[in-house]
Structure formats: structure tokens, C-alpha cells
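Bench notes, afternoon.
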Amino acid sequence: MTLAHLRINRAANIQSDLYIVEGDDPNAFATFVNGQRVIGVNLGMVKMIGGEVNEYAALIGHEAAHWAKGHVDAGQTRTHTLNALGTLLGVGLSAAGVPAAGLISGVGVDLIDSSYNRDQEREADAQSIEYMLVNNYDPWAAIRLQERFLKREPGFRLPFLSSHPSGDERIQNLKVLIESKKQER
């Protein structure tokens, strides 16, 4: 995993630390810790992937793309702006006598934020394939990783409130992208 992290960072032209963190539900993320760029992978993810280096490359490539594309910075700014607008909307609706004004404005903010996040997730998935190809990792591992998630997904979720595209959509997008890259080579 460490070698994949170093190689993907170089391809993404970023510098980040790799943290392994607690957590049973598989997850990975890009964030700041003490002003440093960090890619975090939790123990649940490590257990799920095991020793599959190509899947780590897909995972780390995805998170590195969030840094390279400015998604982390944009996300922080967007969240602050949307929260302020949501508060103003809630106050306005409340003053107009609309019942559950805070809930309505909160759901509206979540819908807007989720749509932006899904676009960024699609972009990060696509960029991770580039990083994998440049470093001679198997890009099909990105699909295998998504298939692992599909097998794990518990219960019913409302797709329009999710910050990520559905697993099926991601797999389909990755297949199309990988096939197009094969034709380019």
C-alpha cells in the first residue's frame, strides 16, 4: 500500500501523508490533519482489500484525485457557503410560517451538496484510472473494488441523498473509461 501511495502521489503531482485509522466500516478519505494533506484508509478497508495492491492503487488514486482536482478545498468552501444559505432560508421560511422550515432548508442544502459531491466522485474515479495506467497497475482493480462494496452495501439508501454515485453506476462508468483507454493505446 505504501509503494502505491508514493507512486500515485508522484503521478498526481501532490504530496500527502498516508494514515491508517480505526474503523470497521470500510472507508477512505482525503483531508487535512494539522495543515498537512492526508489520505486516510481505515482498518475496515484494509481488511476488505487484504493484499490486493492494484485495489489499493485504485483507492489511493481516487483519494489523490480529490487533492489534485481541488475537491477538498472546494468542498470546505461549498459546505460553509451552503450552511450559511440554508440557515438564511430556514429563517425566511420560518418567518413566513412554513412548518418544518429548518428540515426543509436542510434537505435542500443536502441535495445541492450531494449533487456536487457525486460529480467530484465521478471525476476522481476517472482520474484514478489515469494514475493507475501511468504506474502500470491493473485498472480493472477499480471495478473489483467497487464490486466488493456492492456485496457489502447494507439495506435501503436514498440515492439522491448519497454523496457518491451508486456502485452500479460507478462500475459502468469505469468499464466505459477503461475500454476507451485501451483503444487509445
